[in-house]
Amino acid sequence: MEQARQKKIAAINDLTGYGRCALAVSLPVISHMRIQCCPIPTSILSNHAGYAEYFFDDYTDRIPDYLAMWKRLSLSFDGIMSGFLGSARQIEMIESFINEFQGKETVVVVDPVMGDHGKIVGVYTEEMCQGMKRLVSRAHIITPNLTEACKLTDTPYRERGWTKKELFAMGEALNKMGPERIVITGIPQGEMIANFVYEKGQEAHVVKTFRAGEERCGTGDLFASIIAADAVNGVSFRESVRKASGFVKKSLQKSMEMQIPVKNGVCFEEILHTLKVGGKAGIPVRAQVSRKG
Predict the structure, then answer these.
(1) What is the pTM (predicted TM-score) of this model?
(2) Which terminus of the chain has fewer Cβ atoms in its 10 Å neighbourhood, N or C?
(3) DSSP per residue over 207-246, as a string?
(4) φ/ψ bin of 73: left (φ > 0), alpha (ψ from -120 to 50), beta (otherwise)
(5) In this structure, what DSSP letter does residue 88 have?
(6) How many CA atoms lie within 13 A of 88 on its CB side?
(7) Residue range 105-133, pLDDT digits in tens
């Protein structure tokens, strides 16, 4: 009976003690949205890697036993979301996890954290990039930034000057890989930042917000967590992207207002109580995407 009382998302990411990113963001945000967040730590860090030094413990060798216990207990999840994965082996493990734990109604959300500003992070080998393409093919929803969308579709990267037609072509290419809902984030457009929303069977559109201060770690995790929770709660994708975009902007503005150091990430905690749960009236609406078996 316990399984039926509350929705659950298995969240796969690193656990960073200081700096507001990864699971440290997903846990409170998903919980606020009335979903139990069940973490799968891929590594443990004292603080994020933007600092000059940090403690790091790779959790890869422990993940199989961790997940074996979940399987032994016959646990199930309404959502599965993945963030940064640090090795080809971890990507393979998450593929296996999806194979074993994805039910008929389980929503799979992949944030393919591979790089930004036209550069792929140093740890990402070509083998890992190909592995991420496989993982993306298993998702219902993906939230790549512009750099990651270009890498996944083998599209030459440029920072500015993207037309809606070009973005639509990337959205179509990503859709053909498997996911039915795609949001390409962080597209610079003058004083605005645009998110391009592609949803199979729907008209593509662009959600724009004004820039708010410097970039901070954790904003991608914040965005993806809202998208995942809304998907499990049955909120329309278009509304969810607008909500997530607006909340990230407000969190950045609050961080500036409080003069939070950039390395400390985005102080979403100050306004988390304002984040709406569910659809327009605060009530979940029926999901509009077919599930993969």
Answers:
(1) 0.93
(2) N
(3) EEEE--SS--TTHHHHHHHHHHHHHHHT--HHHHHHHHHH
(4) alpha
(5) H
(6) 7
(7) 999 999 999 999 999 998 899 999 999 99
